[in-house]
């Protein structure tokens, strides 16, 4: 065998790795918005890498003209195939299910070398209302195909014809899915981007009132029809159903603060899914992540999302400067050199 032919697999592997790493930011963002779970997203990215590597490294494989489109198609369809398993898992989930919180760095965090290093591939698409915790909750009520069309079109700007190719559907069918999804989302989540500074101020006042037992302040901050979701996943004590109404939420929070909290808590304020939020630690261990949504007319709190399930907080930690971070590990280059059958057909 000549030296050139011996080097072909390595060269193909280098190209496969380079293309995948170059697009993994987009792939992570798309899949996370389809599934709402960092762990499931990482699994899908791993499956996408394997399928991509098999295809690229096949002997005499034809050149792929648009690797980005090819990778997105693999990732989206892998995510859709995983939906059945996820749905079965959530049927037995104890209490409300909330998306896994994804901590992103504040703009100020980029000013330090440590902060800049912590900002990874998942961040850029997670800093606007389109992927807020509130909207992710609404997206859970769509069908998998409606959600895929909505995310690809509304969040990432794909044309209906492009989405049709990704999903293997006709453009007219995609347009119908897009229309239904858009109407459904707009009915439950009118577009409103709260001022980040105001949202953080309200969050800080809310946390201080809840921990301090200031019922009057809580009542002034809460909208009359406020709803609170607590996701403990059966691992920690939490409400098994959403708590609705200002009086009930205020009483629940007061009881929670006086009877269930550890003696020592450390509250850090950080971006979670693009929104200013409270990240709570007990010692060095994550205890809870709380995200709030505000009413556009009076800036009262309309929705509270409290995640205490330790499985969903396993990636949340304090860095060497005491700053909360939870940027996922996105199959770095050293993890991409995997063994597989180069003769296997790509899915």
UniProtKB/TrEMBL annotation:
<dbReference type="Pfam" id="PF08281">
    <property type="entry name" value="Sigma70_r4_2"/>
</dbReference>
<dbReference type="InterPro" id="IPR014284">
    <property type="entry name" value="RNA_pol_sigma-70_dom"/>
</dbReference>
<protein>
    <submittedName>
        <fullName>RNA polymerase sigma-70 factor, ECF subfamily</fullName>
    </submittedName>
</protein>
<dbReference type="GO" id="GO:0003677">
    <property type="term" value="F:DNA binding"/>
</dbReference>
<dbReference type="InterPro" id="IPR013325">
    <property type="entry name" value="RNA_pol_sigma_r2"/>
</dbReference>
<dbReference type="InterPro" id="IPR052704">
    <property type="entry name" value="ECF_Sigma-70_Domain"/>
</dbReference>
<dbReference type="InterPro" id="IPR007627">
    <property type="entry name" value="RNA_pol_sigma70_r2"/>
</dbReference>
<dbReference type="InterPro" id="IPR036388">
    <property type="entry name" value="WH-like_DNA-bd_sf"/>
</dbReference>
<comment type="subunit">
    <text>Interacts transiently with the RNA polymerase catalytic core formed by RpoA, RpoB, RpoC and RpoZ (2 alpha, 1 beta, 1 beta' and 1 omega subunit) to form the RNA polymerase holoenzyme that can initiate transcription.</text>
</comment>
<dbReference type="GO" id="GO:0006352">
    <property type="term" value="P:DNA-templated transcription initiation"/>
</dbReference>
<dbReference type="InterPro" id="IPR013249">
    <property type="entry name" value="RNA_pol_sigma70_r4_t2"/>
</dbReference>
<dbReference type="InterPro" id="IPR013324">
    <property type="entry name" value="RNA_pol_sigma_r3/r4-like"/>
</dbReference>
<comment type="similarity">
    <text>Belongs to the sigma-70 factor family. ECF subfamily.</text>
</comment>
<keyword id="KW-0731">Sigma factor</keyword>
<keyword id="KW-0804">Transcription</keyword>
<feature type="domain" description="RNA polymerase sigma factor 70 region 4 type 2">
    <location>
        <begin position="133"/>
        <end position="184"/>
    </location>
</feature>
<feature type="domain" description="RNA polymerase sigma-70 region 2">
    <location>
        <begin position="23"/>
        <end position="80"/>
    </location>
</feature>
<keyword id="KW-0805">Transcription regulation</keyword>
<feature type="compositionally biased region" description="Acidic residues">
    <location>
        <begin position="334"/>
        <end position="347"/>
    </location>
</feature>
<dbReference type="InterPro" id="IPR032710">
    <property type="entry name" value="NTF2-like_dom_sf"/>
</dbReference>
<dbReference type="GO" id="GO:0016987">
    <property type="term" value="F:sigma factor activity"/>
</dbReference>
<feature type="region of interest" description="Disordered">
    <location>
        <begin position="324"/>
        <end position="347"/>
    </location>
</feature>
<dbReference type="Pfam" id="PF04542">
    <property type="entry name" value="Sigma70_r2"/>
</dbReference>
């Amino acid at each position: 065998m000549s030296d050139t032919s011996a080097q072909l697999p390595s060269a193909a592997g280098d190209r496969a790795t380079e293309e995948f790493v170059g697009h993994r930011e987009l792939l992570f963002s798309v899949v996370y918005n389809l599934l709402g779970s960092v762990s499931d997203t990482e699994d899908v990215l791993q499956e996408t890498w394997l399928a991509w590597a098999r295809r690229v490294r096949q002997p005499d494989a034809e050149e792929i003209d648009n690797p980005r489109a090819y990778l997105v198609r693999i990732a989206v369809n892998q995510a859709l195939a995983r939906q059945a398993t996820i749905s079965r898992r959530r049927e037995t989930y104890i209490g409300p299910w909330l998306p896994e919180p994804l901590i992103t760095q504040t703009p100020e965090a980029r000013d330090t070398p440590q902060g800049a290093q912590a900002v990874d591939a998942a961040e850029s698409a997670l800093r606007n209302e389109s992927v807020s915790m509130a909207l992710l909750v609404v997206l859970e009520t769509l069908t998998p195909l409606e959600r895929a069309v909505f995310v690809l079109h509304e969040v990432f700007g794909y044309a209906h014809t492009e989405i049709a190719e990704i999903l293997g559907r006709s453009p007219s069918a995609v347009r119908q899915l897009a229309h239904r999804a858009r109407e459904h989302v707009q009915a439950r989540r009118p577009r409103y981007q709260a001022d980040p500074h105001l949202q953080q101020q309200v969050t800080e006042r809310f946390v201080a009132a809840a921990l301090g037992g200031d019922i009057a302040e809580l009542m002034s901050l809460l909208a009359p029809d406020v709803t609170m979701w607590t996701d403990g996943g059966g691992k920690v004590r939490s409400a098994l159903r959403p708590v609705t109404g200002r009086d009930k939420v205020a009483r629940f929070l007061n009881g929670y603060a006086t009877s269930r909290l550890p003696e020592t808590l450390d509250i850090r304020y950080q971006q979670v899914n693009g929104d200013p939020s409270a990240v709570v630690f007990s010692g060095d261990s994550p205890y809870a992540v709380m995200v709030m949504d505000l009413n556009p007319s009076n800036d009262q709190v309309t929705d509270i999302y409290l995640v205490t399930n330790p499985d969903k907080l396993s990636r949340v930690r304090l860095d060497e400067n005491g700053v909360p971070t939870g940027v996922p590990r996105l199959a770095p280059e050293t993890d991409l050199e995997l063994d597989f059958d180069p003769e296997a057909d790509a899915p």
